[in-house]
Design brief:
Number of domains: 1
Low-confidence stretches: none
Distance between the termini: 44 Å
Order of helices and strands: HEEEEEEEHE
Structural class: mainly beta
Largest sheet: 3 strands, antiparallel
Shape: globular
Oligomer: single chain
Strand content: 15-25%
CATH topology: Immunoglobulin-like
CATH class: Mainly Beta
CATH architecture: Sandwich
Mean pLDDT: 84
């Protein structure tokens, strides 16, 4: 029995590498496959000396360059913290970014575009690797 057309079309789509998508064009190979880099752990609203932090994990055996990727606590502003050039997570390895050292109000990291911290009442963590038409 042939696959219904709707199923065939659905199976040929995936998230795009570009903001706004790339209808009708193949943009595979530009960014890693979904699930290659995952948010593994989050510490939110810490009462100890440690600040909030986010742990990313590379699920593949190969190094993945996350230069220019963004981290945020808001899906309405995905571009709050930008990973610097040369930010690479080795295969099956972790990268931890912290509020105090990277994305918070007092962080001196040049990738901090809009400072943020996580609420104890629950919040979201957004990791985006999308490129716009200018490859940003």
């Amino acid at each position: 029995m042939p696959i219904p057309l709707a199923g065939a079309i659905r199976n040929s789509w995936r998230g795009s590498a570009y903001v706004g998508g790339s209808p009708g064009a193949d943009d595979s190979g530009i960014i890693p496959n979904p699930g290659a880099i995952v948010i593994n752990e989050v510490l939110a609203h810490s009462h100890s000396a440690a600040s909030d932090w986010i742990e990313l994990y590379n699920t593949t055996a190969n190094p993945i360059d996350i230069s220019g990727w963004y981290l945020s606590d808001s899906d309405t502003n995905l571009m709050k913290y930008r990973f610097a050039a040369g930010a690479v997570i080795q295969g099956q390895d972790y990268l931890v970014v912290t509020e105090m050292g990277h994305f918070g109000q007092s962080a001196a990291d040049s990738g901090r575009l809009v400072p943020f911290a996580f609420s104890e009442n629950g919040e979201q963590v957004c990791l985006t690797s999308a490129l716009d038409t200018n490859n940003h």
